[in-house]
Specification:
Blueprint lengths: L3 H16 L13 E3 L3 E3 L1 H31 L2 H7 L7 H11 L9 E5 L8 E4 L4 H11 L11 H15 L4 E5 L8 H11 L4 E4 L6 E3 L2 E3 L7 E4 L22 H10 L1 H9 L2 E4 L10 H5 L11 H4 L5 E3 L5 E4 L2 E4 H6 L7 E5 L13 E3 L5 H18 L3 E5 L4 E8 L4 E17 L6 E11 L11 E7 L4
Parallel strand pairs: 1-20, 2-20, 5-6, 5-9, 9-10
Antiparallel strand pairs: 1-17, 3-4, 3-18, 6-7, 7-8, 11-16, 12-13, 14-15, 14-16, 17-18, 18-19, 19-20
Helix pairs in contact: 1-5, 2-3, 5-7
Length: 466
């Protein structure tokens, strides 16, 4: 039963988000449905989530080390495995190699995991996406719902203020379009809350000029600054134009890297400019998870590090995969009854047009045998012919019964929905500690849960008595 407090407490964030123009699609309303009250999590679950952030950071650091070593030694196996999609363009590949091997710590300060079961990550990302919603939800929900000591607007404010202070004494800058906006209203809102009018705005891609207080400046006018990226992919991709199937070095790409970014990248390498998150596009691909079970690389990772991901393997012809101690061939998996076929197959490379938003992600129990075989054939051919990897993972999706405000008609409803928990983390400058900032929860009728206009979004709270 949803209480009157819950109803009032969720309508207030909706109204506030509308005032802030944070609607997901329609600017007249918040496009996502809103969770009634807080979603409870046990303390031991939150402790595991906290530990997982540190382990994830260690894994990303090890991947950078292995990759740098492979590049310096001219080893092809790992570089071919990781340099997929847009990194198949020679100029962008060399550009990316130079960044990762520059000696700078190419790891993010803020990053997140996506966890369908609150225990393991099905993928991960770097950057600020989603934190604008989290900030707005925390700020408004607490007017009617008291927070817990672990998760509160005060704690969120302190963590992001710490992030802001890491930028200092260098001023912060962000790439914007011709109207002075980033690609996401929630990020514009968050940066305004954090930096006020002090944020420097750099015109994106085709002009290295800066707009600061509406007056154009030149990059040379700033001795140093920190460039805030929405995500690493923003350096390599704009409206899909960088992902032509021909993978040719086009004038468009040349403008992105040499005209707009050349000076920034040179200054990043010499330390006068910082970029957050680091310009490391490996954060945008899923094949990294399969390295932890790969015969040649698993020894570099600990058993505890493997616990934060479901078992993951690159799909290759005539391969067998071990799940829960049992061996399976592709034919074994296809021939299983649907209910037992609890696996996810997904594209895991760096084609930036399709490796986001649940595209090319397939739940095998939802497919016929013929459809499952077609997906495996496609995955095998993709890796064999083009070195574009697909992976198979254990399906860890789960459902929870929730109550929420349906923003299409302003009515409260209850339903069983698939879950996705997004814990955000803050890493220390030396990478020796990682703090849990907060957790954003999403729910959806469809198993591909993410921020969309038919999903439910809300906050978590540590369960009483746990």
């Amino acid at each position: 039963m949803v209480s009157e407090t819950d109803v009032a407490g969720i309508k207030l964030p909706k109204d506030e988000l509308n005032k802030l123009n944070l609607g997901y699609k329609d600017p007249r309303r918040i496009g996502m449905n809103l969770l009634a009250g807080y979603h409870p999590l046990k303390k031991e679950t939150v402790d595991k989530i906290t530990r997982s952030g540190f382990l994830l950071y260690n894994i990303l650091n090890k991947v950078n080390t292995l990759y740098s070593r492979a590049v310096s030694k001219g080893s092809n196996q790992l570089t071919e495995l990781l340099e997929t999609g847009i990194l198949r363009i020679p100029e962008i590949r060399d550009f990316h190699r130079e960044l990762i091997c520059s000696g700078r710590r190419c790891l993010p300060i803020i990053f997140r995991g996506d966890s369908p079961d609150s225990v393991q990550f099905s993928e991960f990302h770097a950057g600020l996406r989603g934190l604008g919603y989290l900030w707005a939800f925390r700020k408004t929900m607490e007017k009617t719902h008291p927070p817990c000591s672990t998760f509160s607007f005060e704690n969120l404010h302190n963590h992001l203020s710490c992030f802001k202070n890491r930028m200092l004494p260098k001023p912060a800058a962000v790439c914007v379009d011709e109207k002075g906006y980033t690609c996401a209203p929630e990020i514009d809102y968050l940066l305004k809350e954090l930096f006020g009018n002090s944020l420097i705005k750099i015109r994106r891609y085709f002009s290295p000029g800066i707009i600061h207080n509406r007056k154009p400046q030149n990059l040379q006018d700033l001795s140093s600054f920190t460039l805030l990226l929405i995500s690493p992919r923003r350096m390599f991709w704009h409206r899909g134009s960088a992902c032509k199937i021909s993978f040719k070095w086009t004038p468009f790409l040349q403008k992105i890297i040499y005209n707009s970014w050349f000076e920034i990248i040179q200054r990043y390498k010499n330390g006068t400019v910082d970029i957050e998150p680091a310009p490391n596009i490996f954060f945008e691909q899923k094949v990294i998870m399969a390295l932890l079970w790969h015969a040649q690389y698993r020894e570099y990772f600990t058993q505890e590090e493997r616990t934060i991901f479901p078992e993951s393997y690159i799909i290759e012809d005539n391969s067998t995969y071990e799940f829960d101690g049992a061996q399976y061939s592709i034919d074994n998996i296809i021939d299983m009854p649907r209910r037992q076929r609890e696996f996810i197959v997904k594209y895991a490379g760096l084609d930036l047009q399709v490796n986001w938003g649940g595209q090319r992600v397939y739940r095998l129990k939802n497919l016929s045998r013929q459809s499952a075989r077609r997906i495996f054939t496609r995955a095998i051919g993709s890796y064999k012919k083009h070195r574009e990897p697909w992976i198979i993972q254990k399906d860890i999706s789960q459902k929870k019964k929730i109550s929420f405000l349906d923003t299409t008609d302003n009515k409260m409803r209850s339903d069983n929905m698939y879950t996705l928990y997004r814990p955000y983390y803050l890493a220390s400058p030396d990478g020796k500690s990682v703090e849990l900032i907060d957790i954003l929860a999403f729910f959806r009728k469809f198993f591909k849960v993410h921020a969309t206009n038919d999903s439910v979004c809300g906050l978590v709270k540590i369960q009483n008595g746990s």
